[in-house]
Task: structure prediction
Amino acid sequence: MTEIRLYLPGTADDLDALLRDGRLEVAGRTAYGVSPGLVAATPRADEEEREYAAFLEAADAAGAADDGAGRVVVLSIDLPEPEISWPREGHFVTLSGTIARRDLVAIHLGEEPGPDADLLWYDATEAAAAVELLRG
Result:
């Protein structure tokens, strides 16, 4: 089964829930990815450029979530393609249900508070260290 990479603006509480419960309720939340609409809008871009554009959109949304006061958190997740229902336009999707810890691929955190900070990359196996950094 084909999986789709999505970028979900997140929080320290989201990571806590994934670590504690092994799952995270995401119903009604917006995630970003390479949608058919993004492909059509960027015919000369390659897959990597499209992935980066979707990632940046998620980072912008994460940075705006708390008026830019906290660290940006973006969760990279892989979900089965049948679970994704893209809108006609845009490169975002409204999620339903839950994601499991096994769906988490990577965590991206702002190096410091604020929406313009450089983002650090953590593998999913480093989720506890990412939470510690966020809470520290």
About this structure: Strands lie at 3-9, 23-25, 30-33, 73-80, 92-94, 98-100, 104-110, 119-123.
